[in-house]
Amino acid sequence: MASDDIWILGIAMTKFGKHSDKDIVDLGSQAAIAALADAGVTMADIGILAAGNLMGAGAGFGQQLQKQIGQTGIPVFNVANACATGATALRTAIMAVKAGEARMGLAVGAEKLSGAGLLGGGGTSKKSSNTFEPSGRFGSVLPTDGRIGTDTMPGTFAQIGMEYGHKYGGVSFELFARISEKNHAHSVLNPMAAYQKRFTLDEIMNDMMIAYPNTRPMCSANCDGAAAAVVTSGEVLRTLSKEQQRRAIKVSASVLTSDPYQEACQVLPDVNTLTRNAAIIAYEQAGVSPSDLDLVELHDCFATAELVHYDNLMLCPEGGAVDFFMSGATWRDGSTPVNVSGGLESKGHPIAATGIANIWEVCHHLRNEAGDRQIKDAKVGLAHVIGLGSACGIHILERSGL
Amino acid sequence: MPQQIPHVAYLELGDSPHLVANECTTCGARYFDRRNACAKCFNNDFKKAAISPDGILKSFTIVAFAAPGVPVPFVAGIIDCNGTSVRGNIVDCDPTPEKVSLGMKVRLTTFSLGTDEDGTEAIGFGFAPA
Known about the structure:
The complex is a heterodimer.
Chain A: E1 6-13, H1 24-39, E2 48-52, H2 61-69, E3 76-79, H3 85-98, E4 104-111, H4 153-168, H5 173-187, H6 201-206, E5 209-212, E6 214-215, E7 225-233, H7 234-237, H8 242-247, E8 249-258, H9 273-286, E9 295-297, H10 303-312, H11 321-326, H12 343-346, H13 351-366, E10 380-387, E11 391-399
Parallel strand pairs in A: 2-3, 2-4, 9-10
Antiparallel strand pairs in A: 1-7, 1-8, 4-7, 5-6, 8-11, 10-11
Chain B: E1 4-6, E2 11-12, E3 18-24, E4 30-31, E5 46-50, E6 54-63, E7 74-81, E8 84-90, E9 105-115, E10 121-129
Parallel strand pairs in B: 1-10
Antiparallel strand pairs in B: 2-3, 3-4, 3-5, 6-7, 6-9, 7-8, 9-10
C-alpha cells in the first residue's frame, strides 16, 4: 500500500428506522463508537472529527458528540451540505488525513426524520399586512411554490426523471415504478433497512400518488439513523495489525462537486452535470471504469432520480438508461447491481447519515461480510449521493487484497 | 380602473404579457431573479430581454401532495421558450397524464391571483396548451 493512499479502517451504521427513544447525539454516538471499535482504535487516535447533521445545522453537533464519545480537544468541522452532508463529512476527514494534518479522522452523520413528512415545499407564508409588496430576489407578491411550479422534493425529482424522458424517450410511469420494485425487492435481504417489504408493480403504481410519476413507495423514506467511518493513510495502516490491514477498504477515489452553470439550472436543479463531472474525476482517480464496478449504491431519493444516475455515472451509454435498466443489469443478479441495500426508497434516508451509510454498504460487500445479500466476490464498488442545491459526492472503494 | 401588480417582477403585464429576463451583456445567460453577477461568466452587467410566450413542455410533474395552503393537484412544468427554460404551471388543462404530455406546445397566459386590501390585483402567469 502506498503511503498516501486513504483507507477506511472502520465503519458502522445504526439500523435505519424509527428510534423514538434516542436523540441525534445518541444515534451519532452509537455509530461513532461502533466505527471506532470496528477500526480497533479509540478517540485518542483520532486527529479530526467531521460531523454532519443537516436539520440541526448550527447547533454544534460535532461538539455535542464529543461530550458523549470523547472530548479530546481535536478540531471539529460541523458540516452541512444538503443530502450530501454525510459524504461531505467523510470527504473533510479524508482531506485532513491526505494533507498530513491528522493520522486518523472520524466522520459521523446523524439525522432524525421520522414523521418529517414532505420536504422542500414552502407553502404559504404568514404576511404582516394584507397588501401586495414585492419581496425577495424574484420580487414576488405571493409565495411561488405551487403557483409557479413546485418546490417539493418529490415534484422536483419527478421533473428530473421526466426531463430525461423528453431528451431520450422511453420513460413511463411503469418504468419508474419498476425501478422502485427492484429496490424494494432488494431491501428484503437488508436487516438494516427501515422497510423490508417487497411490493408488486401493481401495488407500487396504485399506491398514493405524491408527484406523478412518483407514488409513495417511489419516494425515499424519512427515518432516523446514523453512520460513521474512521479513515487513515497507507503510512499509518502499515503500522497496524494484519487483521486491520485485511479488513481495511481502500478509498480509490473521493470526489465532491457542485453544480456548474447550465442554461436551465435556475428553473430546475441540475443533478446531472455535477454527477457526471464527479464520476469522470472519480474513475480517473481510481483507475477503474464503470464496467469494473461490482456494485453501486446511488442516490435514489426518488425512483425518477435513479434512472438519470445510471447515465450520469456512465453505467450505460449516454441516453441508454432505459434500455440498461430494462436489461435487468441493475438487479442484484445483473451485471451492475445497483442499490442492493434497498436504496433510499426502502433502506431510508436520514439525510446526514446517507452519504456514509451507502459507503458502509459497499464496504460490507467488499469485506465479504454482507451475509444473505452479499454480492459474490465483490472487489470494487461506488457510492454516490446528491444534495440538492447542489452537491455531489462520489467514492470508489476497493478491498485490500491482503 | 383597479391597479394591477405582477406576481413576480419578471412578469411584464400590458397588452401582450410576457416574461422578462436579466440577460448578461457578456455571455447572454438569462436570469429571472436579481443577480449580483453572472453565474456563468462573472460579469455584472445585465440588460432586459423579453422571453417568447410560446414554448414546448420539456418536463412536468403532477403534484398531488404539497405544503398546506397549496391547492392540489396541479401540473408543474419546465417550458423551453425558444431556448430559454422557464418554470411554470400548466393551466387550462386537466391535471392528468392523459392530457399533459412531454413535447406539447404551450403558450403563456395570465390570470388574477386575488386582490389586496388596497384594491390592487395580483396577476399570475401559467402556460396553457397552444
